[in-house]
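Usage

Read records sequentially. Each one opens with the input sequence:
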Amino acid sequence: MAVEIRCKGCSMSEEARAHVEDRVARLEKFLGSPERVEVYVQRAGNPANPQRVVAEITYALAKAVVRARGIGSSELEAFDLAEERLKRRLERLKGRLVARSHPHHRAGGVQVPEPRLEIRRRKRFTLEAMDPVAAAFRMDLLDHSFYLFINEETGRPAVVYRRDDGSVGLIDQAEEEAGISD
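and closes with the structure output:
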């Protein structure tokens, strides 16, 4: 398994890279070897807090992608926080997969507490056809973090959303492949 390590605004020594690769290799005990692992470390460009380092680990398995983020004052501290969060998420995913595939494991043995995700509010509204720039403007006017609309260019549902860095992103439904029909 290769670990892709990328740094922006900082650098990692060979010793630190070896530490990161060793810690990521230990995560294989949860769900086996991943297809790919990406570690992205960035020193914040915020002049108010120049000591802020953000580490993000993306752990891609065959049927799931698990991502965790940690913020610290050094590259290794941020990575360690992200790795702890990733470990908890992998444990929770493993518990769900085992419970789903082996119902008899629920009755005995160790119970993995599963958080209840509850839908507390439902909204219904009609989607308007508009271009992504107009949707981003509407999202900004409403002071929302995302906005669902029909993309005029494609005719399919799409979402514009506010990214962590303050820019706006677009999620658009992929085209259906030719030859696949319902």
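Summary fields computed downstream for this record:
- Strands lie at 3-8, 36-43, 53-60, 65-72, 129-130, 146-151, 157-162, 168-172.
- The two ends are 38 Å apart (CA to CA).
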